Records
---
Amino acid sequence: MAVQPRTRRETWRLLFLLSPSLFWLIVFFFIPLLLVFAMSFGQRGTYGGVRWHLNLENYARLFDPLYLRIFWRTFRIALTTTLLCLLIGYPLAYFIATRPVRWRSSLVLLLMIPFWTNFLVRTYAWLVILRDQGLINTLWTGPIHAFLLQVAEAVPLPFWSSLVQATAQPLPLFGTDLAIIIGLVYGWLPDMVLPTYAAIERLDRSLIEAAQDLYANRLQTFLRVILPLTMPGIVAGSVLVFIPSLGAYITPDLLGGARSIMIGNVIYAQFMSARDYPFGSATSFVLMAVMVVGTLIYFRMGGGEVEV
Amino acid sequence: MSEYAVELEEVSKHFGPVVAVDRVSLTIRDGEFFSLLGPSGCGKTTTLRLIAGFEIPTEGTVYIEGKPQGETPPYRRPVNTVFQNYALFPHMTVYQNVAFGLEMRKVPKREIRQRVLEALEMVRLPGMEDRRPNQLSGGQQQRVALARALVNRPKVLLLDEPLGALDLKLRKAMQLELKALQHRVGITFIYVTHDQEEALTMSDRIAVMNEGRVLQVGTPQEIYERPANRFVADFIGETNFLPGQVVEATGEQVVVLVDGQMPIRVPAVEAVTTGRWVTIAVRPEKIALHAQPPDPQAISGEVEEVIYGGTDTRYQVRLTPETVITVRQQNAQVGEAVVFPVGSRVYLSWPPEAARLLTE
């Protein structure tokens, strides 16, 4: 509902009340954004810095297959992360939302506690788990290998020997897209659980009973009633996971290898090592445009349908 | 096939230490309008949910059309429910709401269309198919909920305080409409309400419940005229209770001494012995007031309050220092009725069978 200020005085009062946030947004968001936008049409100076020589070369460069591939990989990883978060987060949210009221806030708290630890530290923890000498691979090449070796001696089959040989090698986890996805899913799971939890908790229980009363079995009840009515939560959660995953930088930097960099790493490299500010700016802007367009399409698809 | 649409056999439901329904046995006939009446928390809604299958009995058996239901889930029971808050699907149109049950049972599309339109016609909501529930008034939502259940042609329709959210006038209108509808479709209705007037108006039979137990089952008239105990007498309509001790019990008549000073004659219901403490129950509208004693044994009192209420006038009459009795006189005459002013002496009389002796 739009509030129409009736008099000039009210308009001024409104502006006065909004002034702190307006000031903040203009000085720390809008002006820097404008600077980056302007920079993206410039040229890299010989010793860093920007030469204000307006051209579209930076944007043209992004069509290089090298960068297109990175964009595509980034998109794929972010999408996989979002889907996995949804598959893990929705049932978890459903479980929490259907517990007795006195348990719910404690369960949500339990979910949040790990995320009060520094993000960098938590990502390092995954490095310790996933790397070649890490937790998983120590078990894989140690006890599991030893066990299969014993079985192989007892049952001499050709199939076994190849399996045993495979377990002698560490699993290629670290430095892969999989490692990045694991890190991202872990990092953004609460952002999926919280909005879906809120949507499921708000859901009127009697609607589920009404569906069952009208001959819908559990699956039909879920597909026809629960899912559509919790769609706003799913849409919100997916956007909250997808956007930061697209711009992820720390996770691919720590868990990904040289071959699985994401667009966030490209931008970082332009600003911090290549000192090509204009190209970094152009990349940022394209990423931002992709996010805005993607979110709009997504809301149009999922969000427009539901009006409760 | 059983002659009963629904039978409950010693059904109990416990929620942890709480006994919501306590060894309830009921038989509900085919085509009957049966009400479960009682105050909130008496177990009436739980009883309904046990029939619908939303709850499974801790003990006892629910039969629908003679078949024991055991743990049959709600979607496999031949009953449909009209929920208290209607529980219409907010993301579906009126048409989709009503069609839901038929779609789930894989009824052909053309038949669905025909039956949905018929059902909407029946509840007098034609032309509303494309509206969303939130675009409808409370009364219209109520009708959609009814259509959504009836369209499935269930054997038994369960209604959980369906008129509770409507305003008085609409509720009265819907009561009559529901009753007429039930007559027309011939489906067994099991109706949960805490409104005694509603139950009396609509039901063929009523089960009065309190604290998880059924206290009395009978026609509205039986329940009103011959309440089985003090709770039923108090809950249904208005009743004066006069506690006293039996001083004389000779066959047909019992004399009860109220407040140790006022003997009242009551027909004996069961064997009562002299000396026993009992309660006499008399409905206010059964009592007549007189300026002169109608018979030598008539009890008398002093008018303490006169409340004019349109169709009737209520008197508070003090019989003894401890006991005040309520009397309702119909204002049947045109113009000014005979009014007994405050402070005047009046004599009371009632037909002998109007007073009930409650022995518990």
Note: The domain at 238-358 of chain B is CATH 2.40.50.140 (OB fold (Dihydrolipoamide Acetyltransferase, E2P)).
---
Amino acid sequence: MIAPLFYIFAGLAIVAALSVVLQRTPVYSALSLILVLCSLAVIYLLLGAQFLAVIQVIVYAGAIMVLFVFVIMLLNARQESPTDHSLFARRLGLPLLAVFLAEVIFVVVGHFSGTVFAAGATFDGGPGAVGGLLFRNYVLPFEVTSILILVAVMGAVVLAKKQL
Amino acid sequence: MVPVSHVLALSVILFGLGAAGFIVRRNIITIFMCIELMLNAVNLAFIAFSRYLGDPDGQIFVFFVIVVAAAEAAMGLAIIIAVQRNRQTLSIDDLDSMKL
Amino acid sequence: MATHSDLPLLLLMTLAKVVVVLGVLLTAIAYIVWMERKVVAHIQSRWGPYLVGPHGLLQPLADALKFLFKEDIVPDEVDRPIFWLAPLLAFTLAFLSISVIPFGESITIAGHTIPLQITDLNVGLLFVLAVTSLGVYGVALAGWSSNSKFPLFGGLRSSAQLISYELSLGLAVVSVVLIAGSLSLREIVEQQRGLWNICKQPLGFLLYFTAAVAETNRTPFDLPEAEAELVGGYHTEYSSFKFAMFFMAEYANMVTVSCLATSLFFGGWLGPVFGPPLVRSLLPVLWFALKVLAFLFVYIWIRGTLPRFRYDQLMGFGWRVMLPVALLNVLGTSLIVAWRSV
């Protein structure tokens, strides 16, 4: 039951990710990215991370991407015009990227070939378990991120406001 | 069951697509979205390893990545709005005043 | 956990439940529209629909036929794929969140106990919030793709409004979760057997309902489609069946929000139960339906009574009043819960 679902949503994620990269209109890219995020959420669910799957949809797809779509609408970003300024990045960057990816795939396949996930989940990724861990072992990082978010909110207001 | 390598391969493919988009695209917003794609690819790897090793720490890490991504998106989009306001452009080719 | 031999039966049962719930929901939506027209008409000393069928009871049918046969106008400069996607998205998401809401305890047919809920997730409440948070896209994309100024304003306004009020909605729900100690809607309802949550969380309920009215774009928060200034808001350019989909989505959202309010604060399907086994298992569904109906009536009552907010008042109210009060409510509730558990 789980394997076919994984391959369906993995395929969906790859197709949507391709569309994120290839679309020229930002809104289409954003919508494709939302599709990637949602299919990843399903894969998280299959991997036993239920809480993160829901958080992925609420925070990533439901808040961060809304912000993107909102800004795209606000700035009325239409089709992007192709330019040839970036030949350097293309000629050097893409081959280097290909080399890097080949290396990573080589390592991954070499190291994990034939390894299968254990049948039963060893850790319950429900809200209770993750929350317990978060508030017992990781209280300090948790509090620090709240300060980070506060700073980000203030920074965003300062940057985006016309006059203070 | 799904082999571990397939999940990791998906993660690598998504990361590669994000990186390629980062290099090829010219619109700042699209580039920003490619960064989000790369972040998500890494998150997937974290969760896969967390499941494989039976170690919940990977999931906690993903939680923090998502939180930081939210802060990053708020800041980044504010910068994009400021850039658009001052330069009336979203193409990174036109934002080259700091180049030599 | 279901074994493999149970799987086809389980799938069949779920499918049957989905079909029944969808059928009931669609009929209910048609008659909520009728109820709204009737109630608002009586508030305004009119009769409302009266000609089609007794007391206009067949009016929903006539409306549906009218929507189907109207010309589907697509303006020239719209972004076609997204113009199509937006109503579909709004419609689907509105119907998706009903799947985790428990309508009753369980019913036993031919030795099989069937829980009266499409699926019971241990993160059920978060699922509803996730689906609601995606609901913004339908409205925002409709506004953007129409390529016309009034829909764009409507879309921008509604995205801002939905994001702002989602925070208060989430925080109001958190206070209930703190008391129940669970995110499963079934467990939250079960936990209210002694005392309904409204008694423990009156402020939480007030916050929830206000935010919910704003989330469903209803008066007095219907700025995204304020007729007086924005023509029709985000769906100005839509006609025929695509408009009907937005329309149905709005009412489906109202139903979902009312169901959630019933489950979270008013004890869900709980109520006096008596009689033979079949009545015993169906009576809770009746209690649930009555409570939801009462909420829908309040919705319409509010629409018939209150004037619309101004946009800056709306945002100011959301951020300066609702959010701080919701935060204080969560703080107070968690302090009490922590104090009790010590």
Note: The longest helix of chain B spans residues 57-87.
